[in-house]
């Protein structure tokens, strides 16, 4: 396990401890985390603060060159909204903790030339499987069902 995926998992666990969906993300520029985040839809009543969006928000405004030289780590496959932000800012690589519980817009990202690395991490899977089992209605709302 590398330090960046571990940081994303730590964010996911923080979100779970706050009563939210356990999805975490970090934005890494040249080997340094510049933004961390976790899903905050329940905690903040937000319609857009998925883990990836929260990490981007917490990175603050960056020049386009920074995004184009960054890697986004996320514990779960990015949904269409988060994938849109990845495309908008030109983030060239996404490292995904797992995509067994949910496959987001991976095909869209690949077609746009974004490099995807799927880790199939057991910690990421267990966090999501447990949460989905315990809170299916919250999960369904989170993914727009």
Structure description:
- The chain is α/β, with parallel strands linked by helices and 145 residues long.
- 47% of the residues lie in helices and 18% in strands.
- The chain contains 8 helices and 5 strands; from the N terminus they run αββαααβαβαβαα.
- The protein has a 5-stranded mixed beta sheet with strand order 2-1-3-4-5.
- A hairpin with a 2-residue loop joins β1 (24-29) and β2.
- The longest helix is centred in the first third of the chain and has 15 residues, at 3-17.
- It is globular, with a radius of gyration of 14 Å.
- The protein starts with a helix and ends with a helix.
- The relative contact order is 0.16.
- The model has no long low-confidence stretch (mean pLDDT 95).
What is the molecular shape?
A: globular
- The share of residues in helices is 40-55%
Please list the strands of the largest sheet in the order they lie side by side: 2-1-3-4-5
Q: Mind telling me the C-alpha Rg? A: 14 Å
Order of helices and strands: HEEHHHEHEHEHH
How many helices?
Answer: 8
Largest pleated sheet: 5 strands, mixed
Uncertain segments = none
* N-to-C span: 32 Å
Q: Which band does the percent of strand residues land in?
A: 15-25%
Averaged pLDDT: 95
Number of β-strand runs? 5
Which secondary-structure class do the elements indicate? Answer: alpha/beta
